[in-house]
Design brief:
Protein Binding, DinI Protein, Chain A; disordered N terminus; mainly alpha; two-stranded parallel sheet; disordered C terminus; about 210 residues; about 60% helix
């Protein structure tokens, strides 16, 4: 799960405009790689780290529930073996049988508790991941929108995505049309020194 945190948190990035280039009478059309901006924005690894802490905590609690369930199953197995021993009197075997039924009910409850924990906490993780993603994307979009208004861009397209046919949305563009570096600089200009800089491998991402 650790290796897919960034992938999960960056899922759902969408273009800021339509997927086809319309005709415009004035202004300038520019491009931005939203996937790269998202990854290189200093708040993204911070959010990913917080999400990982939550995931690690849930995994630890889930493993404790699994351990309790395995222990209950082992105890149930031993009790079932005990109740079959012929050296016991009918009264003792009846007591063993009752103990088996009680342990079986306890084990079944532990199984249900584990399954419910998995379902409920997966929902919590999904919600937390979505909130983080939407918050970061909102900040990115605000910066892009302000830049477009200040400079006078008519349209800003996300070049990181693919069409429904699986081909890049933008097949070709001049480097001068790409404002990705400018957006990243603006987003990271208030980056605290303690957060460090994104690792080189984080900066490389395939277009969707």
């Amino acid at each position: 799960m650790k290796n897919i945190i960034v992938t999960l948190i960056t899922g759902g990035i969408v273009a800021l405009s339509t997927t086809a280039f319309p005709q415009v009478s004035s202004g300038r059309i520019v491009l931005v790689d939203l996937n790269r901006v998202f990854i290189e924005y200093y708040k993204t690894p911070i959010a990913s780290a917080k999400l990982k802490e939550t995931i690690d905590s849930y995994n630890k609690e889930q493993e404790e529930l699994r351990t309790q369930l395995r222990k209950g199953i082992d105890e149930l197995t031993k009790l079932r073996e005990e109740q079959e021993k012929t050296e016991y009197t009918p009264e003792v075997r009846e007591q063993k049988k009752k103990a088996v039924q009680e342990k079986l009910a306890e084990t079944q409850k532990a199984q249900r508790d584990l399954e419910e924990y998995q379902r409920s906490h997966q929902q919590i993780l999904d919600q937390q991941r979505d909130r983080m993603r939407q918050t970061i994307l909102g900040e990115i979009k605000d910066v892009i929108s302000k830049e477009a208004k200040d400079v006078g861009y008519t349209l800003v397209f996300d070049k990181s995505g693919n069409t429904l046919n699986g081909i890049p949305t933008v097949v070709y563009s001049q480097d001068s049309m790409d404002i990705t570096d400018d957006i990243i600089k603006k987003l990271n200009r208030n980056q605290p020194k303690t957060t460090g800089t994104p690792k080189p491998e984080q900066k490389k991402s395939e277009t969707k």
